[in-house]
Write a structure and sequence with these properties.
This protein is mainly β. The protein has a domain of 88 residues: Jelly Rolls, CATH 2.60.120.380. Helices cover 13% and strands 42% of the residues. It is built from 1 helix and 9 strands. The strands form 2 sheets. Strands 2, 3, 5, 6 and 8 form a 5-stranded antiparallel sheet that branches. A 4-stranded antiparallel sheet has the order 1-9-4-7, with no helix packed on it.
């Protein structure tokens, strides 16, 4: 019959062996660190709250109420157009149409939305543009390099 001290010693040895096996059998531990680039997701909101945007500083911003065409601007590289609108002050749903007007080209429909508010974003290539907004609601536009 074994004595209690021997059982305790055997149990401690078994626990130590198990702990050693679970960490690689006594080999030095290695740590792998992987960096993942941050991503930004933009979500339209029915409330008309502005969508989140990337950390890029806008090279143009404009806001207003009703129909308007922006002044011409130039984008030197890939860029993102972000828009929001809110018809909360009107108390009913309305339409919003956003057109991108490339200099010397045909207008491109960016968005047609209906509701109390919303927004979104699209990415375009370098060029010279203006943007037209058609709506009775309040709106904002921003262009930022990507």
């Amino acid at each position: 019959m074994r004595s209690i001290p021997r059982l305790a010693a055997a149990a401690a040895a078994a626990a130590a062996a198990l702990a050693l096996a679970s960490c690689g059998g006594g080999a030095p531990a290695t740590t792998t660190t992987t960096s993942v680039p941050a991503t930004t997701t933009t979500t339209s909101r029915a409330s008309g709250a502005p969508p989140s945007t990337a950390a890029a500083t806008p090279f143009f911003t404009q806001s207003g109420t009703g129909d308007k065409t922006t002044k011409t601007f130039s984008a030197k590289g890939s860029w993102t157009l972000t828009w929001t609108f809110s018809c909360a002050g009107l108390g009913h749903k309305e339409n919003l149409t956003v057109l991108l007007r490339p200099q010397g080209g045909k207008p491109v429909k960016v968005a047609t939305q209906k509701g109390l508010g919303g927004g979104g974003h699209r990415t375009y290539q370098a060029g010279t543009y203006s943007v037209s907004v058609t709506t009775p609601c309040g709106w904002t536009l921003a262009g930022a390099s990507t």
